Amino acid sequence: MMIYVVKFFYNWLLPPGIFITGLLFLGILLFKRWKKAAGFTWLVAFTIYLLSISPCGDMLIQSLEQRYQPPGEVTDRDVIVMLSYGATKDTPDVSGMGQLSGSSANRLLTTVRLHLKTRLPIIISGGQVFSDSGNEAQISKRILMDLGVPDNQIFIDDKSLTTTENALYTKEILLQHGFNSPILVASGFHMPRVVMNFERVGMDVLPYPADYRVSRTTHLYFNKFSPSSGALSNSGTALREYLGIAALRFKAQ
After folding, report:
1. Do 149 and 161 meet the contact criterion of CB atoms below 8 Å apart?
2. Residue 253 has what pLDDT?
3. Residue 128's closest CA among 164, 166, 87, 99?
4. Which of 29, 126, 143, 208 has an alpha carbon within 20 to 30 A of 89's alpha carbon?
5. Within 10 Å of residue 9's Cβ, how many Cβ atoms?
6. SS3 at position 125
7. How far is residue 120's CA from residue 61's CA, in Å, rounded to a whole number?
8. What are phi and psi of 123, to 5 degrees?
9. Binning pLDDT at 50, 70 and 90, where does residue 177 land?
10. Dmax over Cα atoms in the chain, in whole Å?
11. What is the mean pLDDT of residues 16-41?
């Protein structure tokens, strides 16, 4: 029991907990002379606290991850499409330079397993987003070949910088090679926005979510109410996805 108590208070000494603590004390210092400023400071601290605890982060990310279920059968499909989600550029790897981020690697693992099960070809979509990040599609192709996927079974879009471009450039590959019924692999939290983008360009996709951030069944306990960077990351990721979904709906009007 003691170790959980230590972990609870330990989180308050690390970001974001230390910032929340600092804002609370700042509010106390401001209260006597500037009550409105103190109130605003406490409001900011409370907002950051809510976004930094697991019950809030889990709820937000689950609301996206639970929209689609992995299908039981995929026999009527003719290609697997995977959207990548980050890579490093010059980090050493087994067969070259550059590695996939955690989300991209999880998606690739699901993609490889689907390929082994169906023997369908694979399209990887994702370019080099920043000057110091890796080309996601090219790194993914190298890893796929390391895992035994034949070169002639891999097609890449290494130009996409956004989810909208993922859909547009993937459609070009589908038309070029005569594919009609893709299985779409992306993170569960990303899937709702991905599907909307692909539907906007007229593509009928079978969503196959992967890379789940939280368990389907969660429990409340003491330590979940201490702030953590992981919970804040989940909250931020979910809010970014909702903002992207809202922007797509606004464009459709």
Report:
1. no
2. 67
3. 87
4. 208
5. 10
6. strand
7. 30
8. -115, 125
9. very high
10. 72
11. 95
Q: State the residue for tokens 């899937």.
A: 191
Structure token digits, residue 77: 């499909």
| Ordered structural domains, the chain, with CATH | 2-65+227-252 (no CATH), 79-210 (3.40.50.620)
Token pair for 46: 């409370």
Neighbouring-strand partners of residue 183: 80, 206
- N residues, the chain: 253
**Taking residues 64-88, what's their average pLDDT?**
94
Dihedral angle, C-alpha 203, 185, 126, 229, nearest 10 °: 130
Q: How far is CA 135 from CA 84, 141, 156, in A?
A: 10, 10, 11
Q: Is residue 108 classed as helix, strand or coil in its secondary structure?
A: helix
Determine the Cα–Cα distance for residues 231 and 243; give it in Å rounded to an integer: 18
Q: Which two tokens stand for residue 122?
A: 């694979």
- Between strands 122-125 and 154-157, the pairing is parallel
> Over the stretch 110-123, which tens digit does the pLDDT of each residue have?
999 999 999 999 99
Q: What is the pLDDT of residue 221?
A: 87
CA atoms within a 13 Å half-sphere pointing along the CA-CB vector of 148:
6
Q: Which two tokens stand for residue 233?
A: 């990351």
Q: What is the CA radius of gyration of the chain?
A: 22
Contact present, 33 and 61 (Cβ < 8 Å)? no
